[in-house]
Amino acid sequence: MDVLQELEREVAVFARRVEGARQSWQRHQDLDRSAYLILLALDNNGPMVVGQLANVFQLDISTISRQIAPIVGAGLVAKERDEIDKRQVRLSITPEGSAALEATRESRRQLYAELLADWSDDDKEQFLALLQRFNDRLRQRQQEQENR
Amino acid sequence: MDVLQELEREVAVFARRVEGARQSWQRHQDLDRSAYLILLALDNNGPMVVGQLANVFQLDISTISRQIAPIVGAGLVAKERDEIDKRQVRLSITPEGSAALEATRESRRQLYAELLADWSDDDKEQFLALLQRFNDRLRQRQQEQENR
DNA sequence: CCACAACTATTGTATTATACAACTGTCTTA
DNA sequence: TAAGACAGTTGTATAATACAATAGTTGTGG
């Protein structure tokens, strides 16, 4: 068996499946994918400007600009011009945003608890470690591609 | 550290990243994602009808119907009405389709060889096994959701 | 046995996520 | 200080998807 080929295939299927599952998984009150990821980033890193988010997600600034509109409208993130460089727009998570993030996070944690109910702690930790390693590698590669 | 929560997050990032990487990874002659996955399925399972493919990928029949048009046009899959049930359309991979699939597969195998260059064989096998297990679980869950 | 309901696939239409282009306002530098 | 670089927004285009309407085919209950 060619492990690389199998892995490649499994990753392709995985991406497709996770993507497809988005709609059906999502409970009504949950944040949608882009909002969730943006709030996660702001929660993790503290306030960020639009371009930084675009960079993190490897998306066009215009895409982020559009994705933040509804979550700013909903009061989940605050938007203010940077005082030092007035071109930039600084985004920070609000208390309401934190609450919404926590709710969605909990809802998803539940889902994963169910999905991985029969996995040993060791398996879960292994999977997490390998996924993180793979993600780091992908991030690194994307950086390289930019600087070329 | 909450392993489930970390895992959930890592999966979300992973899906986003793999999705985003699609364009930049894809060499010019390679099959696009939908063509690649459809040819993989036909190669694996033998001839299938449109509805079966839709079921495998959890997509609407109309979506598959549209996705097969270009690959039929390119001669990579053959399309014929089922003789027994003339409503159905039977799809099978052609020799050209097999060749195209093999080429894309090899190109991706190369990419993965590079991405995972410093992984031990053991790590790769572990990751593959865990991914497969997770994918199986997702498939199973989607089945459950349908029958409800 | 046949009319009508169910099913398969296609095509029309709408939505969503995305990128690129044009533009505005701000900054930096020669 | 004028010219170019930069950050973000908004307009427009494209791609992937779902749902609705339709056409052709099959199965079934009176």
Name the features.
homodimer, 148 residues, mainly alpha, Arc Repressor Mutant, subunit A, 3-stranded antiparallel β-sheet, 6 helices, 3 strands, 70% helix, DNA-binding, DNA binding (chains A, B)
Major beta sheet of chain A, specifics? 3 strands, antiparallel
Q: How much strand content do the residues of chain A show? A: 5-15%
| Mean pLDDT over all positions of chain A | 90
Order of helices and strands of chain A: HHEHHEEHH
Q: Distance N terminus to C terminus of chain A? A: 35 Å
* Biggest interface, residues from each chain: A-B, 56 and 56 residues
Q: What is the CATH homologous superfamily assignment of the domain at 29-115 in chain A? A: Winged helix-like DNA-binding domain superfamily/Winged helix DNA-binding domain
Order of strands, main sheet of chain A, comes to 1-3-2
CATH class of the domain at 29-115 in chain A: Mainly Alpha
Total strand count of chain A, please? 3
CATH topology of the domain at 29-115 in chain A: Arc Repressor Mutant, subunit A
Which regions of chain A are unreliable across 5 or more consecutive residues at pLDDT < 50? none
- What structural class is derived from the secondary structure elements of chain A? mainly alpha
Number of helices of chain A: 6
Q: Give the CA-based shape of chain A.
A: globular
- Mind telling me which CATH architecture of the domain at 29-115 in chain A this is? Orthogonal Bundle
Give the fraction of residues assigned to helices of chain A.
over 70%
| Radius of gyration over C-alpha positions of chain A, nearest whole angstrom | 18 Å
Q: What multimeric state do the chains show?
A: homodimer
InterPro entries (chains A, B): HTH_MarR-typ (IPR000835), MarR/SlyA-like (IPR039422), WH-like_DNA-bd_sf (IPR036388), WH_DNA-bd_sf (IPR036390)
Protein name (chains A, B): DNA-binding transcriptional regulator, MarR family
GO molecular function, one term (chains A, B): DNA-binding transcription factor activity
Domain HTH marR-type (chains A, B): 4-136
